[in-house]
Request: fold
Amino acid sequence: MNLPNLLTLSRIPLMVIVVALLHPWNDKPIPWAWTAALCLFLFGALTDWLDGWLARRLGQVSDFGKFMDALVDKIFTMGTFVSLLALGIVGLWALFPILLILAREFLITGLRLVAAAQGKTLAAEKAGKVKTVMQITSICLFLAHGAIVHDFSNLKAGETLVSWTVQVAQAAQFTLILACLLTLYSGINYLVKYWNVFTANHN
Reply:
C-alpha cells in the first residue's frame, strides 16, 4: 500500500471522526467540536488533491488508485451529507437533493464496477470533479455555520462572524442545490459517454 492510496483511504476514518465530533454526547455539544470538525473535513478534502498529486509525482498512478479515489470521494461526501441530515443539522428539505445525489453516485459506481469486470478503468471526468468540489463546499459551509453558532457566538472577537450567520446558512443551502444539479448533469454526461459499457455484448 503506497502513500497516495493511504491518503485516499484516510478520508473514510476522517469522515467518521467528523461525524462523531458533531454528535451531541449527553445532549451537550463538545466545546469547539464544530470548528474541529470543519478543520478535519477541510484536511480530508485536501487529501483528495494531494493523493493524486503524489501519485503522479512519485510515479505511483494505478488502476486501484483511480478507482478507490473516486469511490472514497463518494463515501466521504455522501457519508457526511447523510449524517448532517440524520443529526438534524440539515433540514428535511434537503432530503430530496441528497437522495438524488446518492442515487447518481450509486449508479456511476455501478457503471465503474461493470467496466472493471470488463478490464476497463473509467477515470473521473472534469464535470464529476467540479460537482465533488461543490459538494465539499456545501458541507464546509454547513459546518462553518455550525461553528459560528456554537463556537464563536459567545466570543467578542467573533461578533463579525456572527453577523454573517444567515448569509452562510443561505450560501450552504444554495451550494447544496447547485451541487445536486451539477451531480445530475455529470451523471447524465457520464452515462451517455460510457453507455456502451452497459450495453456491450460479450457473448
User: Anything to note?
Assistant: Helices lie at 3-22, 33-57, 63-86, 95-117, 126-152, 159-162, 165-199. The first helix runs from residue 3 to 22. The chain is about 80% helix and 0% strand.
